Amino acid sequence: MIIFSERINGMYRDVRRAINDKDKTVIQELVCCQVAGGADVIDINLGPTRGNPVENFLWLAQTVAEVTDKPISLDSAKPNVLIEAVRGVRAAMPDRPLVINSSTATPEVMGQLIPLAVETGASIIGLTMDQEGVPGNVEKRVECGATFLMAALEAGLTPSRVYLDPIILPLNVAPKQPWNVMEAIRQLRVVNDPPPHFIIGLSNISQKCLMNRLINRTYLVMCLAAGLDAAIMDAGDRDLVEAAVTAEVLLEKHLYSDDYLKAWRLQKGL
Ligand code: THG
């Protein structure tokens, strides 16, 4: 699976403070820890930080790029910020793989961000939501996912550069959603060949829940069985990463060996 690190997010107090104070060390230590845990992509999200968001994104991307060659995912709900930040980061690092996180499936937002992916060579995450918000049922999620994928392919992106995100909400406010999200992944995967990637922001599911780490790793395993192949998650959580690798061995994504965790680490160069 493709592990996006969730940790460089201003929602976390240490990261928020580091962005506000332009303290590189805190960020770079976290990035190294996420990479050592198995992160393939570093998602960066400013959260509620002060100052100019485009400048903050540039600073954060540069800070990350100093310690890793991994792809960088620029995470913002504001299309205007993403447009400037992605262009700025692309100009500063012409060869770095980038991901735009994220677009909705509304014509207005898709119409700006899909061409931005084409222009900058970035991959893009499409949320299965439109102007009416996050769908309460499977059908609407599938419809939004199909709409986004169609628009992306028509613009010339390959399925491998498209991630569909059926949006997982906290378990304690939306108890039917975990099953709906898995079913949407399953349905969208079977009707598209070759399929795009499927991703979720895993920790959303356990926000303000007591057993958050247990809920996260149980749900990640369930989603992998439904066809998920990427997640924004804490790569520093060893139990979580090992549960994911084990699920992938059971799904025959990796060859079984008695020491399959070690084999996985070796193969990843960890
Ligand atoms: N889809 C996409 N992008 C996303 C999300 C998504 N980006 C942001 C978010 N959702 C994924 N990242 C996180 C990061 C942290 C948490 C949840 C999702 C989180 N943090 C703990 C909390 O708030 O309780 C801990 C905070 C703390 O310790 O201070 O839950 O869905 N495409």
Give the topology.
Blueprint: E1 2-9, H1 13-21, H2 24-37, E2 41-45, H3 53-65, E3 72-75, H4 79-92, E4 98-103, H5 107-120, E5 123-127, H6 138-154, E6 162-165, H7 177-190, E7 197-201, H8 212-226, E8 230-233, H9 238-250, H10 260-268
Parallel strand pairs: 1-2, 1-8, 2-3, 3-4, 4-5, 5-6, 6-7, 7-8
The structure holds (6S)-5,6,7,8-tetrahydrofolate.
Q: How many beta-strand runs?
A: 8
State the end-to-end CA separation.
Answer: 15 Å
**Poorly predicted segments:** none
The bound ligands are:
(6S)-5,6,7,8-tetrahydrofolate
Structural class: alpha/beta
Overall pLDDT, averaged? 98
Helical segment count: 10
Helix fraction, binned, reads 40-55%
Strand content: 15-25%
Principal-axes shape call: globular
Radius of gyration: 18 Å
Q: Biggest sheet, strands in spatial order?
A: 1-2-3-4-5-6-7-8
Major sheet attributes: 8 strands, parallel, barrel
Order of helices and strands: EHHEHEHEHEHEHEHEHH
Structure report:
- By secondary structure, the chain is an alpha/beta fold.
- It is 49% helix and 15% strand.
- It contains 10 helices and 8 strands.
- It has an 8-stranded parallel barrel, surrounded by 5 helices.
- β4 (98-103), α5 (107-120) and β5 form a beta-alpha-beta unit.
- The model has no long low-confidence stretch (mean pLDDT 98).
- Bound molecules: (6S)-5,6,7,8-tetrahydrofolate.
- Residues 6, 9, 11-13, 45, 75, 101-102, 125, 165, 167, 201, 203-204, 207, 232 line the site of (6S)-5,6,7,8-tetrahydrofolate.
Keywords:
270 residues; eight-stranded parallel barrel; binds (6S)-5,6,7,8-tetrahydrofolate; single chain; 8 strands; alpha/beta
